[in-house]
# Entry
Amino acid sequence: MSSKIISHISIIMDGNGRWANQRNMPRAYGHKEGVKAIDKIVSACSVRQVSQLSLFALSSENLNRPDYEVQFLLKLFEDSINKYIDGLHSNNVRIKFIGNLESFSSKLLKNISHAEKITKDNTGLKLNFAINYGGQWDIINAVNNMLEDIDFSSKTKKISAIDLKKYLSLQGSSPDLLIRTAGEQRLSNFMLWQHAYTELYFTDCLWPDFNEKELDLAIEYYQKRTRKFGLLNPSNNVIKKDVK
Ligand code: IPE
Ligand code: IPE
Ligand code: MG
# Structure
């Protein structure tokens, strides 16, 4: 494999329901199998020295699904954090949850804050879970928080991208590569700001079937891309330029 560094991968983990349907099983079965795929891919990213992995687990819009599915998913997150947290911690993974967490049960919030707290000083893979997350929510939330902080009376009434970025759920580098499983080719409101110059990779593979081999195919695709960031003569040495 070529040596081009891939620092941040994001994934829209789609297709759990279809995977279960194909087996005449309830959708919940697909979601459970999807968690096993997450475990596999987190380890694979650590081994491949990816610095950051951002996973779309539940969108703002997914909360409009039937209540039994939403409740099932929230309980699955609660149980899965419990089940996997020790393993993740011992693998030096740093966990962060992004999204509108306000409406979640106190049990789920407790597990989230425990996971973030015990892993906060870990120096390995940065793992971001987006739940009840929407890219539009993220931007609006950032603007609202910024309005509370900034005293516009003493400033010109203009903000810069650098100002806004400080208030988004994720600071730091934007994803280099976005993977979306299950054949759909859209962002579905995932990190709209951060994906401005991300390379996009779509596969028909359904999320529960996604494995190390599929990940390597995506990384191979990325290795062949020339990133230009709007420039005329991109140097192959340019690994990353963040959009300002
Ligand atoms: C992705 O799988 C997981 C979530 C959105 C929670 P889906 O549930 O969207 O599965 P499909 O698209 O119906 O197959
Ligand atoms: C996107 O998948 C959200 C997650 C994978 C968490 P959806 O299945 O909700 O997306 P659409 O509805 O097909 O755009
Ligand atoms: Mg879907």
In short: The chain has a mean pLDDT of 93. Helices lie at 16-21, 27-47, 67-90, 106-119, 135-149, 161-165, 212-224.
